[in-house]
Amino acid sequence: MLPHISAGLRRSAAAVALGAAVALAAPAAPAAAAPQAAAATPTAATAPTGAWAAGTRAYLVITTPGDTSAVRAAVAGNGGTVFAHYDAIGVVVAHSASATFATTMRGVSGVQQVGATRTSDVPADAYAPALPPTPTQSATTLTESDRWDMTQIRADQAWAVTTGSATVKVGVLDTGVDDLHQDIAPNFNAADSVSCAYGRADTRAGAWRDVGTHGTHVAGTIAAAKNGKGVIGVAPGVRISSVRIAEPTTSMFFAENTICGFMWAGDHGFRVTNNSYYTDPWMFNCPDDADQAAIIEGVRRAQAYAEGKGSLQVAAAGNSNYDLANKTTDTSSPNDSTPVSRRITNACVDIPTELPGVVTVAAMGRGNVKASYSNFGRDVIDIAAPGGDGSSGVYSTLPGGKYGNMNGTSMASPHVAGVAALLASVNPSFTPADLRARLASQATDTACPSDSRCTGTTAKNGFFGEGQTDALKAVGGSTPTPGTYFENTADVAITDNGTVESPITVTGVSGNAPAALKVGVDVKHTYRGDLVLSLVAPDGTVYPLEDFANGDSGDDVVKTYTVNASAEVAAGTWKLRVRDVATQDSGRIDAWNLTF
């Protein structure tokens, strides 16, 4: 079993950066507290009363939704301070250094539940948060290239139908996002970005920036711009908002942070949010524990609020190779102090992954395989997507203009969030329930492997849920009719040290060429080591087929190549280009063909 990443992140391997080494973002040096922005929504909190003191702990105090003023007064009268409050869902975030605070508040009239959200002290930074440093940017010479994960879910073909609408806002609830990154800046929505670290909205410019690398990588998978640089996200036309819910230094995602994030998402019109984390410090929250029961209820109410406002939550399933449908033990919690080994049951839930309405995403490796680390579980996993495994990582953006690979269900979830954003783009009236239903119906059925842990049917099972997400089917696109065949049998002489072309004009095929265009070649030549073969698309784009080794003395080239030509319009004149790079041997293009 792979260890579950601490601090709630759903990443199973470190980033591998190209270019200069990646420096992990750290909090800036403490400075005088900047004033908080004025409350812009009903969920924004007023500044906390009192000052930080050693031993301060955070609590959720839950009451009837509506006016929480009486409960807030009780918090102040019983040794606590109100740090934030969300009246619409009846949740108050309270701080107290009193060991009896929770017990006392549970006896107050109108209080339904009280629970500590952590087993460690609230840091002093909560009262005067330092802004994350502004990352120095490095320009890239990397150009956009084919990526296995995008091809696997047919996102590269879906772009011919839509790249997504700029009216669709996707929230990245994570460690933050580098909004200055060359591949993120074109789609970044600063007006709706925020820090929710510690459980209250910090709207200062830059508060949303990455305190690690994780959130920037996730954001790029969802919506890196289609601008010729680096990478392309699943939905490169939608808008990205950063909601930093990770706390600096620890990158912990505590319940009050998640609540703030969901409330922000609902009030700011996010159609989709991505949640590649679990709510610290408990990998699983159990309802028979008073603290954890309050966490379950508080986050559940916030998620329901966001969904009621039109926001669909997509979440990573986790990286422990654990059966979420048959829970027995948890040995990694609490992860903010000293973990203990405890017996658990299926009543204990991974938050927000297992909350009602949340789309739970398992990870696949390259091909129709479960990623070795991915959690699973019949009737828990909703859908699967590429998360990478081993050397086949998911390549995306990193802070400072960099790029690199990561593996994890953290990387699978944003693929599904991106597909959901494409769905919302072509179906603007869809509700979160509609998006969930379409995500399920468009998924490609994926059968269980020979693994007794995978139960269910090909249509729905514990490893892949409804199957692997399919961006092309999600947006109603289609590939050209299989088997559409074109051939040119006219001979074209190949001279020494010369370049020749043979054309085929394609008609009657609508849309783009397929990702698996078949190119059949029959070239007669007495020394094929002289040859370089390429396919030239109607717009002049050159797709290399084969550059034969100079020492290959074999005769002729009779073979079929597969080309990902999904970025090309099918109709038009295609050419087979053959270049002879040496003297003494010659030949001809005898025939060649295209199968769409």
Automatic annotation (TrEMBL):
For molecular function, the Gene Ontology terms on record are: serine-type endopeptidase activity
Q: Which parts of this chain are annotated as the region Disordered?
A: 123-142
Superkingdom of origin organism:
Bacteria
Signal peptide coordinates:
1-28
Q: What PROSITE patterns does UniProt report for this protein, alphabetically? A: P_HOMO_B (PS51829), SUBTILASE (PS51892), SUBTILASE_ASP (PS00136), SUBTILASE_HIS (PS00137), SUBTILASE_SER (PS00138), TAT (PS51318)
An annotated GO BP: proteolysis
Taxonomy-wise, where does this protein's organism fall, top ranks first? Bacteria, Bacillati, Actinomycetota, Actinomycetes, Kitasatosporales
Domain P/Homo B, by residue range, is 475-596
Where is the catalytic site? D174 (charge relay system), H214 (charge relay system), S410 (charge relay system)
Gene3D superfamilies in alphabetical order: Galactose-binding domain-like, Peptidase S8/S53 domain
Q: Which family does it belong to?
A: Belongs to the peptidase S8 family.
Q: What is this protein called?
A: Peptidase S8
Q: Which keywords does this Swiss-Prot/TrEMBL entry list?
A: Hydrolase, Protease, Serine protease, Signal
A Pfam match: Peptidase_S8
